[in-house]
Design a protein that fits this description.
337 residues, alpha/beta, UDP-N-acetylmuramoyl-L-alanine:D-glutamate ligase, 10-stranded mixed beta sheet, 4-stranded mixed beta sheet, globular
Length: 337
């Protein structure tokens, strides 16, 4: 791998999941996983051999220490995930089945991370020697201080010449919980980004316009509008998902560059075990190929492989290697011995 670590700024979360396909509180048991949008991408890339570092704040208790230990155990440097007053952010998941969708309940208000602002991080020092900064729209959605911190991180990266990767991850309920202006904040963050993970709906939100056409034509029109509005933006990555049932989706991956694009064929993903974190797995796959010098086709293929494989794995993050990506594209589904 090329030198230079990848830096991820965002909140670590603990996920508590009802057993099997039960509803929450149906039985007195919950399984625990550690995740968070940015941490999931970091874990996915660490498993692909990249040098990854997490920047975050966690409470000084067993939950915070356990979350950091889990991310560190996945190969991510957590030196800059440090204690801060507050609580651990949680969310609860009931996994859907058939025609019943999965359901999430958030319990993250007042978390240690959400309470922090730009003065709590020395981003210039944290980004020293970095090859990339990755962050998402979930961080600014948590509140005004988090929004200021996300903007400070992206501005510091831009000052230092560190490319910025930004996943829109629009969460209406989080933005609506405070007196927010998501269009203004997200527009500035995308304006500072080199890479955007988002589709025509994300661009409609920040540009205040709709896009005509359908399918690939609409996505290209949106991408061209994004490139025109944000001069530093070089790459837009997205997926197209058709949900047949809770455990059967059809997924395609797309990469748009200023000159040209590539969209894969749809893949049938059946027998879904866990779709949480599939978008973060896609981001990890695209960034893996991008950092390796891959073209639009290679980035789309790598992102598609990881997002499809993630649906087979419990938990929030991709933990697959290059060999797993190669096996996915090779089509071998028998036991690998």
């Amino acid at each position: 791998m090329a030198e230079g670590r990848l830096v991820f700024f965002g909140e670590l979360l603990i996920r508590l999941t009802a057993p099997g396909n039960e509803l929450l509180m149906q039985s007195p048991a919950l399984s625990l996983h550690v995740g968070g949008a940015e941490a999931n991408v970091a874990i996915g890339l660490a498993h692909l051999g990249h040098d990854c570092a997490m920047v975050s704040k966690i409470p000084s208790n067993a939950l915070g220490r356990g979350a950091v230990a889990a991310v560190r155990g996945a190969g991510v440097d957590c030196t800059a995930a440090t204690p801060y007053p507050g609580r651990m952010g949680l969310y609860f998941l009931s996994v859907g089945a058939g025609l019943r969708a999965s359901e999430i309940v958030y319990d993250r208000a007042g978390s240690s991370f959400a309470a922090t602002g730009p003065e709590d991080y020395d981003f210039d020092a944290l980004l020293g020697g970095a090859r990339l900064l990755h962050l998402s729209g979930i961080t600014p959605a948590l509140g005004p201080r988090s929004a200021e911190a996300a903007l400070a991180a992206a501005r510091a990266a831009k000052r230092r010449g560190v490319p910025v990767s930004f996943d829109g991850n629009y969460r209406a309920m989080l933005w609506e919980a405070w007196d927010s202006d998501p269009r203004a904040v997200l527009s500035e963050l995308i304006g500072l980004a080199d890479i955007l993970f988002g589709n025509h709906r994300d661009l409609s939100l920040v540009l205040g316009r709709d896009f005509s056409g359908e399918g690939e034509d609409r996505r290209r029109e949106a991408a061209e509008a994004g490139f025109s509005a944000f001069p530093d933006l070089k790459l837009i990555a997205s997926t197209a998902r058709h949900t047949v049932s809770a455990d059967h989706h059809r997924i395609a991956a797309r990469i748009d560059l200023r000159e040209g694009s590539h969209q894969t064929d749809e893949v049938d993903v059946t027998g879904i075990v866990d779709r949480i974190g599939a978008g973060d797995a896609f981001a990890a796959g695209v960034l893996h190929a991008h950092l390796g010098g891959g073209d639009a086709r290679a980035m789309a293929a790598s992102g598609l492989a990881l997002t499809c494989l993630k649906h087979s794995l419990p938990g929030d993050a991709s933990r697959f290697s290059q060999a797993d990506i190669d096996a996915f594209h090779g089509g071998g589904l028998d036991v690998r011995r």
